[in-house]
Amino acid sequence: MTLVPPPAAAAPGRTAVGVRATARITATVGGTATTLPVLDGDGPFELRRLRSHGSEARVCIVGAMSAPLGGDRLRIEATAQQGAALHITSAAATLALRGPDSEHATYDVHLTAGEHAQLHWLPKPLICAGGSDLRQTWTVDLAPTARLVLREEQILGRTGESPGHVATRLTVRRGGRTLLDQQAEYGPGAPGWDGPAVLAGHRAAGQLLIVDPVFEETPLEVQLLGGSPEDGQAVLTPLAGPAALVTAVAPDGLRLRHLLDTAQATFRRTVPGASAIREGR
Amino acid sequence: MSRAALFVLADGRFPAGGHAHSGGAEPAVAAGRIKDADSLEEFCRGRLHTAGLVAAGLAAAAAAGHDPLALDEAADARTPVQALRTTARKLGRQMMRAARATWPSAELDALSAARPRGAHQPVVLGLAARSAGLAPLDAAYAVAYETVSGPATAAVRLLSLDPFDATAVLARLAPDLDRTAAAAAAAAGRIPEEGFDALPAASAPLLDITAQQHAAWPVRLFAS
């Protein structure tokens, strides 16, 4: 972790400009199980190794300080090398807060999975507190035989609070070709974000992405999820490549998670060889 | 180049089948989310800055002469919902038929041969604009305008909205249209340095979700 510029009289660990931190995780196959030769926490990211699940290595991200705040530049790089199985969660929701000035924060996640590797990125939601301004990216590079499960959830404002501003971009490449490229922008200043085309009063939005070569042969069918409008709405659709995406909106984080969990249970039931998403939570 | 060709291309009566599509307005009206001129305006603004910006970027890039097949793939990556990919290709096929008759070109023929079931509509429109001698910014304008004029026209039919009010909505969106078209053309201009990642990929969850729901309706007034 580096702090720029050098702290003068700022609180320890943070300056007016913010924290600059990059955490790194590398999973590789050692014998019959996945090992973690690199497990380097940094700044607000403390990395804890959890008990393995079969051959899968499990890592939990624990927040070591309040982040991201405006001005922070945060990054996580996680790689599952050839044949490795890596599962990453977080201990608590990520809370984006306003920094000392109106400067935005960035939070970039880079995920790489090699041939026959399996990577699960299933953290708790991001909560965009009033006044916060965050730009988050997920950049995923997959080998053609790699499998991915990725979930992202944004909750706009804490209970009874006006939302912060968040702009995201999710880019997934498979064998070097772009499988999915998607940006979203919500909160004050994003044109039309709360109107009838985008969120229409919903305060939680999320996605669950599953990439698996098994979908080359048997793509998933479209499914409509969600009951009454007050429970939120979601749809599961196959992408143009071997992947399926669940897109969900809900009035709050609880109902959003319920929709995504329902979708994930559907995957487990219907996908042949659903080992990739077993224990997806 | 003839600037007037832009009016031919952007005319709602250009025979490319767009009149049969509501651009997501039909499910939004049914859900009560579009109920008057104000909510129509907010719907159109949201669609313009998301799906509209993406489509305008693709069209500008095609008009600038970038590989239409690579752009078609970029469009797929930016259209996660199956129903919207199907609609975009259906409209692309109809646009292709009209464009080849209107501004015949070897580039249109080549794309038509490579994608007989239709390429994404904005890619075809951009290539049509190129064949007509129009600039990337012109193509972006045509697509951006179509993004809002489609739902506005549909809302007149679905809600019996006063056509004067619907047209006033379009007029109020003019500054947003200018910004969107300019941003789309600028993004296309960055492709040589940044590749197709330069193109916008903005999304609107409710447009995506309701498009797929709408496709399953047994009876509907509009195709999408």
Describe this structure in words.
The complex is a heterodimer of chains A (281) and B (224). Chain A is built from 2 helices and 19 strands. With 281 residues, chain A is mainly beta. In chain A, strands 4, 5, 7, 8, 10, 11, 13, 16, 17, 18 and 19 form an 11-stranded mixed β-sheet that branches. Chain B has 224 residues and is mostly helical. Chain B has a single domain (25-215), classed as Orthogonal Bundle (Urease accessory protein UreF). Chain B is 69% helix and 0% strand. The chains are: A mainly beta (281), B mainly alpha (224). The interface between A and B is large, with 37 and 43 residues.
State the main characteristics:
heterodimer; A: 281 residues; mainly beta; 49% strand; disordered C terminus; B: 224 residues; mainly alpha; Urease accessory protein UreF; 12 helices; 0% strand; UreF (chain B); chaperone (chain B); Urease accessory protein UreF (chain B); nickel insertion (chain B)
Short description:
The complex is a heterodimer of chains A (281) and B (224). Chain A has 2 helices and 19 strands.
What's the β-strand tally of chain A? 19
- What is the beta-strand fraction of chain B? under 5%
Most extensive protein-chain contact, per-chain counts: A-B, 37 and 43 residues
Low-confidence stretches of chain A: 5-12, 275-281
Helical percentage of chain A: under 10%
Low-confidence region ranges of chain B: none
CATH class of chain B, named Mainly Alpha
Architecture (CATH level 2) name of chain B: Orthogonal Bundle
Mean pLDDT of chain A: 91
CATH superfamily of chain B: Urease accessory protein UreF
Secondary-structure element string of chain B: HHHHHHHHHHHH
Radius of gyration of chain B: 16 Å
* Arithmetic mean of pLDDT of chain B: 97
Tally of separate helices of chain B: 12
Total helical segments of chain A: 2
- Please give the largest β-sheet of chain A: 11 strands, mixed
**Major sheet description of chain B:** none
* Overall tally of domains of chain B: 1
What spatial form of chain B do the alpha-carbon principal axes imply? globular
**Order of secondary-structure elements of chain A:** EEEEEEEEEEEEEEEEHEEEH
Organism (chain B): Streptomyces atratus
Function (chain B): Required for maturation of urease via the functional incorporation of the urease nickel metallocenter.
GO molecular function (chain B): nickel cation binding
InterPro entries (chain B): UreF (IPR002639), UreF_sf (IPR038277)
